[in-house]
Specification:
The structure holds 2 protein chains of 2 kinds. Chain A is built from no helices and 11 strands. Chain A is an all-beta fold. The chains are: A mainly beta, B mainly beta.
């Protein structure tokens, strides 16, 4: 069974810092990996999706990388802002099956 | 506006009651999903459906039931058999991959329903 782990569970940084969130998974036979943002009491908003054949995806200040062989993905946030404060979750899709496995998230606090 | 709606936002259930959570999407997505989220934890898959009148159990289907009579609707019933139903429930949808080199299967989520057992 696919296990997805996110470290750290919580992170607090001053505004303006660049930061990296980590996601690791146990089974490298993935179809894609997706990063989401969740604000308190809200649903998930998709940030980036990386196909298994890709190495990275970028959107604005966000860059996500994927290394299938080592079972790792990172989400890089440049020049963090207080508005980036939220919980960030990664999800791995297993091959062609419609099953997604989620990590427990990293709760980010960006201090003004 | 295309998106996913869930209702109600808050739901209270008494012991022994069945309750139904609504999920509607107007994104013309084939696949729909129900997840449960407990505090400090990731999402766990309850049920998913790829097509009308067909659905599959996820990892924690016991005590839950679903139906998929219309493409845009995927209601979840939390039955009295679910012993610990207090949680945040999230509905999602996505397209199905064509099997080619390009996939558009980003999952889109609704705003969630918070269920509390009294």
């Amino acid at each position: 069974k696919q296990e997805v782990t996110q470290i750290p569970a919580a992170l607090s940084v001053p505004e303006g810092e660049n930061l990296v969130l980590n996601c690791s998974f146990t089974d490298s036979a993935i179809y894609n990996l997706q990063w989401f943002r969740q604000d308190p009491g809200k649903g998930l908003t998709s940030l980036l999706l990386i196909q298994s054949s890709q190495r990275e995806q970028t959107s604005g200040r966000l860059n996500a990388s994927l290394d299938k062989s080592s079972g790792r993905s990172t989400l890089y946030i440049a020049a963090s802002q207080p508005g980036d404060s939220a919980t960030y979750l990664c999800a791995v899709r297993r091959t062609l099956l419609l099953k997604f496995y989620f990590g427990s998230g990293t709760k980010l606090n960006v201090k003004p | 506006d295309g998106g996913i709606t869930q209702s109600p936002k808050y739901l209270f259930r008494k012991e022994g009651q069945n309750v139904t959570l609504s999920c509607e999407q107007n994104l013309n997505h084939d696949a729909m999903y129900w997840y449960r989220q407990d505090p400090g934890q990731g999402l766990r898959l309850i049920y998913y459906s790829q097509i009308v009148n067909d659905f599959q159990k996820g990892d924690i289907a016991e005590g839950y039931s679903v139906s998929r009579e219309k493409k845009e609707s995927f209601p979840l019933t939390v039955t009295s058999a679910q012993k610990n139903p207090t949680a945040f429930y999230l509905c999602a949808s996505s397209t199905l991959t064509s099997g080619g080199t390009t996939s558009t299967d980003t999952q889109y989520f609704g705003p969630g329903t918070r269920l509390t057992v009294l």
